[in-house]
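Q: I'm building a small set of examples for a reading group on sequence design. Run inverse folding on the following structure and report the sequence directly after it, with nothing in between.
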């Protein structure tokens, strides 16, 4: 639970009252940093100096004098370095957040006042009260921190001029229920940019060449394997003609934004009436082509 809260900490804001500020821990507190790190001083902790209120006056505003802190530590420690204590105490006062220091110099800590913390959560760039957030919203926020986009998104955006948000939709095409498992597995590998081409096998030092086994002319990477190999020219011309005939009968502005190579590799990212089923068949053609090519080699 605490780990989950720590992941969400950057998206949570607290409206701290005076009492909340005085109750803040001094050590292992991400808001109290020295040289970018939280501090933990055991001689202070053993003396009971663990919260902001422990270094402040009880009946007037402001911080305790240096020697008061020294005496508190001397009461529980036989041998202590006074200069070190004073130096660290002054450092502690400096690294406290500015708004905390301002409150300490203006307001007295009232021990008998009830505490309440207003917690706000930043969800979809909007600030919402924690008590008003649904379990689903908090779950989605947490999973967004835990999960990372696969590296294939970066790889494919370097190959095609395609938005990452659109590329995320490819998994719907990958996992169509009617596809044979062998084709679903292949689509998964294509989407993840993890087809073992000769180029990749050579990088892994499993073979000593990276040239395509079919055309024997160019380096075999994933785009060459499916799109650029000279042995595929006639096939792609045939497929482009078929697509052209199909799209001529479709009245949609989306057609103008389609790129053949992207459709061939991934299918359609959106819904276009009268086109979807064909495009899914089109993706299967690419998969069959791959299997046939591997059998040929």
């Amino acid at each position: 639970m605490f780990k989950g809260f720590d992941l969400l900490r950057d998206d949570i804001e607290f409206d701290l009252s005076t009492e909340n500020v005085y109750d803040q821990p001094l050590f292992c507190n991400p808001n109290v940093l020295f040289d970018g790190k939280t501090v933990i001083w055991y001689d202070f902790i053993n003396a009971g100096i663990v919260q902001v209120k422990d270094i402040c006056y009880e009946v007037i505003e402001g911080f305790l004098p240096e020697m008061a802190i020294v005496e508190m530590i001397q009461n529980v420690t036989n041998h202590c370095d006074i200069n070190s204590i004073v130096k660290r105490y002054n450092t502690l006062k400096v690294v406290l957040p500015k708004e905390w220091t301002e409150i300490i110099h203006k307001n007295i800590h009232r021990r008998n006042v009830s505490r309440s913390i207003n917690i706000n959560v930043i969800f979809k760039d909007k600030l919402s009260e924690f008590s008003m957030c649904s379990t689903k919203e908090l779950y989605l926020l947490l999973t967004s921190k835990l999960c990372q986009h696969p590296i294939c998104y970066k790889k494919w955006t370097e190959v095609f001029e395609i938005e990452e948000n659109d590329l995320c939709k490819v998994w719907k095409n990958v996992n169509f229920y009617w596809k044979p498992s062998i084709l679903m597995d292949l689509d998964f590998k294509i989407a993840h940019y993890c087809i073992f081409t000769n180029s990749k096998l050579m990088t892994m030092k499993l073979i000593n060449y990276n040239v395509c086994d079919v055309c024997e002319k160019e380096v075999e990477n994933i785009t060459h394997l499916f799109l650029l190999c000279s042995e595929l020219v006639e096939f792609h011309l045939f497929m482009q003609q078929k697509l052209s005939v199909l799209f001529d009968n479709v009245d949609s502005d989306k057609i103008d934004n389609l790129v053949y190579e992207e459709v061939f590799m991934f299918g359609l990212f959106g819904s276009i009436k009268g086109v979807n089923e064909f495009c899914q068949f089109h993706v299967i053609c690419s998969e069959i082509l791959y299997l046939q090519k591997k059998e040929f080699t």
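The CA atoms of residues 135 and 141 lie 10 Å apart.
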